[in-house]
Write a structure and sequence with these properties.
It is a single chain. It is globular and about 40 Å long. By secondary structure, it is an all-alpha fold. It is built from six helices and no strands. Helix 1 runs antiparallel to helix 2.
């Protein structure tokens, strides 16, 4: 899926708001389709992960922690929802988690 590839590209560049934007249309379409609804929750989690990172950068760490909890809520679905995109979802999660550690350590400096 091109949107997921673009998501990882912009998150690598730390354009977290854009990360949210590039997945949103796919998420909206998938959440309304019974065949992709479960997988849409994975996208929702990724979107929330990017949003949490953006909130940290905006100086709102407590809000970021709350939004990150939503990412963590949906992350386990990657292991229980059959999808050809599973390896890409795992890669996106690893990237988000590495960035989360980095942006929070930047805030502490």
């Amino acid at each position: 899926m091109q949107a997921l590839e673009k998501f990882m590209e912009v998150v690598k560049e730390e354009d977290f708001v854009e990360g949210h934007e590039v997945l949103e249309d796919t998420w909206r379409a998938w959440k309304n389709d019974p065949a992709t609804r479960q997988e849409s929750y994975i996208l929702k989690g990724l979107i929330n992960g990017a949003t949490a990172l953006a909130l940290v950068r905006l100086g709102r760490p407590s809000s970021a922690h709350k939004v990150w909890e939503t990412y963590e809520k949906y992350r386990p679905l990657i292991d229980t929802t059959p999808s050809p995109l599973t390896p890409h979802y795992r890669q996106a999660c690893a990237l988000l988690e590495a960035k989360y550690t980095k942006v929070f350590s930047d805030v502490a400096l």
